[in-house]
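Per-residue structure
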Amino acid sequence: MKTSLPNRTDVVIIGGGPVGLTASLLLDRLRIAHVVVEAQDPPSDHPQAHFINSRSMEIFRELGLEAAIREAAAPLDEWRRHVYATALAQARPAPSVRGSAPDTLLGVVDHFPSGPDHRISPSWESNLSQPRLQGLLREAVDRSRQARLLPGWRADLNERHHGVDIGLRPTAGGREHRLRCRYVVCAAVGAIGTDDIPAAQPVLAPASRWAQPNLDTMTAFIQIRMPSRQQAGPTALADSVTEQLL
C-alpha cells in the first residue's frame, strides 16, 4: 500500500471498520484507486460484533480471506449452543439441597445440531471478534496496490461541480491536506464533517449531487450493511462504482 497522500483519487471511503475495509478490498480487485480514512488509530479493542454469517464469509472467500478467518476464529463447539441457566457457575443440573433447590440448567439450544449445512453455502458461519477481523482486513488492505489507508485522520467534505473536495486532518492535530475525488463512500456515520449528507445512513454518491435516489445519474443512497450481498452491501457498492468509473 502506498503511504504518500494523494491530491486526487477516484473514491474516498470514510470509515475503516469491517464494511469500509471490505469495500476497499473489493475496489482493489477492480483496480480502482481509493483512499480509506479512519479516525481511530489504533483500532478499538472494545468488545463489538463477533458473528459472521455465511453471506459475509462468501465475500471473504472471494477475497481469499476465508481460510485466515477460520484459522483465527473460535471452534464451532465453543459457540454453537445457547445455554440458559439460573447460575453462571454451573451449566449442568446441580444436586438438590435438601431436596428443594431447583436445577440451575433451564435449557440448551444447539444452532448447528447437524453441523454446517453445505447445501446452503460452501462458506458457513464463523465467530471472530470484530477487532481481530479488522486486524486481518487491515493487513490485506496494507498489501493492496490501489488503497491508501489513513488511520488517525478525519475528513470534511465540500461538494463541487467537478467533484468532492475533502479536507483531511490528523485527529491528533496537524496540517490539513486537501484531496479531490469523484465518489465518497460513507461507511462510518458521524465520521465526516458536513451538513449536506443525511446523518441517518451511510451513502454512496458520485460527485453530482447529494439528492434522493436518481437512477439516471446513478446518485443513490445505499445502506451499507454487513453481510448480505442481496442488500446493498459492499459488492453492490463496488459494482455501482465500477459502472461509473470504467
Summary: Residues 93-102, 193-246 have pLDDT under 50 and may be disordered. The longest helix spans residues 130-143. The longest strand covers residues 177-186. The radius of gyration is 22 Å.
